[in-house]
Design a protein that fits this description.
The protein has 1 helix and 5 strands. It has 104 residues and is mostly beta strands. The protein has one domain. The radius of gyration is 20 Å and the shape is elongated.
Length: 104
């Protein structure tokens, strides 16, 4: 099974595609019949996506995928482990700085 990049918010596998307009679109890695993005792979190996329409319906070589923004739930992601004990020499603890920045 191919390895896909993971979403930074929820940790699910995503597939990065290029739309007809040249923009990047993240879709869920597994096909979904309720999706609205027709995904195919071109000759260079790039995943391309488009919105199927009545004039140009889903082709046999395309699969429907759900855009990831519609299914992303940040609560699914497991929190990073908290380090206990002293830090190694030369390593700074930035957690206090990050907490200050996030409040302002």
């Amino acid at each position: 099974m191919p390895r896909y990049p993971r979403c930074g918010r929820c940790g699910l596998d995503v597939l990065w595609t290029v739309t007809e307009a040249g923009n990047r679109l993240a879709v869920d890695a597994t096909p979904n019949e309720q999706g609205n993005a027709a995904v195919r792979r071109d000759g260079t190996g790039t995943y391309r996506s488009r919105r199927p329409s009545d004039e140009l319906p889903l082709m046999g070589w395309e699969r429907l995928h759900m855009p990831h923004v519609a299914t992303c739930e940040p609560s699914r992601r497991t929190p990073a482990p908290v380090r206990r004990g002293p830090l190694p020499p030369g390593v700074l603890d930035l957690s206090a700085y990050r907490q200050k920045r996030s409040r302002s």
